[in-house]
UniProtKB/TrEMBL annotation:
Lineage: Bacteria, Pseudomonadati, Pseudomonadota, Alphaproteobacteria, Acetobacterales
InterPro entries: FAD-dep_OxRdtase (IPR006076), FAD/NAD-bd_sf (IPR036188)
A molecular-function term among this protein's GO annotations: oxidoreductase activity
Keywords from the UniProt entry: Oxidoreductase
Entry protein name: FAD-binding oxidoreductase
Amino acid sequence: MTGRSVIVLGAGMCGVGAAYHLLARGFDVTLVDRGPPGRETSYGNAGLIQRECVEPHAFPRDVRTLLNIALGRGNEARYHLAALPGLVSPLARYWWNSRPAAYRRIVAGYEALIRQCLAEHAPMIAAAGADDLIMRTGWKLMAHSAESFDAEAETAHRLSRAFGVNSTILDAAAFAAAEPAIRQPVAGAIHWTDPWFVRDPGALVARYAALVQRLGGRIATGDAASLRRAGAAWSVDTDGGRIDAASAVVALGPWSGRLLRRFGYRYPLFIKRGYHRHHQGDSGLRTPVLDLQAGTVLAPMARGLRLTTGAEFARLGARPTPVQLARVEARARRLVDLGAPVEPTPWLGNRPCTPDMLPVIGAAPRHAGLWFHFGHAHQGFTLGPATGRLLAELMQGEVPFTDPAPYAPARFG
């Protein structure tokens, strides 16, 4: 063990992003996960590196939206009754942080990370030989009513003025020409042109992990729950035996909070679950399309057309209840030529969310050598390399590329 040895717990996008940047700074890195890289939360998403997503998802504040969610009328969000007692406090804080004054400060911290996402993914994609997985075509948001189309167009103009985010406003005819596979007429669409689309998100993470190995890092199968302090070292048990290191990085996504409770940290993480399922063929779509009315992304992946769902609030490990996916599939059959399902059962994943919508990045407040890199909510796939760089800069003692204060672990006490 050397003073620059690091165990990174979690081989999703955030874990491999941190490992890559630590290796670039001369650290001795071992990446530890219970399964292959990129098979958990990073596997199940819309495959978007979302340069346009400069504003995180705020808590709905209008009564109509909240009532629709409470009564299960919409498809953007649903909840398990059993999970509500544990959600009251974090969701109340989430609601409070969504008020305009607080939200503006949060957006400033969020946008500082998002603006780096393409710049940090690009060299990793090149070095990993993963360009075949990338489509630099953006994605389209489809609005069915004139009212929602006008609102989304105004948002696109506002984000362009404020943050330089690029988009093209498509009226009904322009959208029909751009996506002829969509069978139903719509009011219009916003084509967000900056983001990149990844046709196999899990494969991209796996290639990043292979790059980590080529750069001298090691990948081990092990149990993050075995993390412990052993004298001056941090230790974890793996299939190849115990590994000791001077530092440990917790990048376990939704499982981070459970592990850290053993060390006296009680972060107010809450879970937004999501489902997806592939259907044979790509239905002729040229880019991913978000159906705003149904709360789903139709993404032409390598395995077929992936249909995603909105958020489901549930306990970590609760049984699957893919109600939203059934609605999404019924809706998609009316929109496109939908092939047969590829998987016998839907995929289910968990997103780790914080009440202030910002990730937790930095040194543990009370344990030397312990570092945190989690809480990215919907954007771990987008932000992993950028926040991995920030974490590595902090561990190296460099001047970070952005002020790390908004993401400091100590902000939750």
